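The following block was generated as part of the benchmark described in Methods. Ligand: magnesium ion.
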Amino acid sequence: MPDVETRTANAAETEALGEALAAELSANDVVYLEGDLGAGKTAFARGLARGLGASEREVASPTFALLHEYAGPSGSIVLRHLDLYRLVDALRELEVLGLPDSMEGAPVCVEWPRGALRRLLPPTVEVRIDTKPGGDGRRVSIRRAGDRAR
Ligand code: ADP
Ligand code: MG
């Protein structure tokens, strides 16, 4: 997918964008989702999961509330979704997650990327969702970042 600058009119359209991006992702990709609370980052992540063939039900992550794993019909992980919103002690918790080794084999998306994560798991794609005052419209930008090294 070339870099994209677009608008979405509702959550379904934002999800559809995520689904479209999913078709371009490989296991090495790390997608950062930036934007305020309520911008639509989780909606976008839902689209990513759908586009990667996730089954309806999210695989419960037994250990870490910070990490959601989605599996396809065969049971293999198709997407990992980190949400660092409630991260209190960034460095310690990221170490507990075993980053970056524990993230291998499937694309990762990250809401509220910050702290040590930027060093441990740098982005290959940056998605930014901006809210416009008083409405459902969102401006969404998607761009390739970094050197794809991971
Ligand atoms: P975030 O994860 O960024 O905090 P969510 O995806 O959880 O945001 O929530 C976004 C909220 O905004 C949802 O209630 C959704 O229905 C609403 N919404 C309205 N318009 C849009 C849009 N264009 N894109 C995404 N979400 C939208
Ligand atoms: Mg969210």
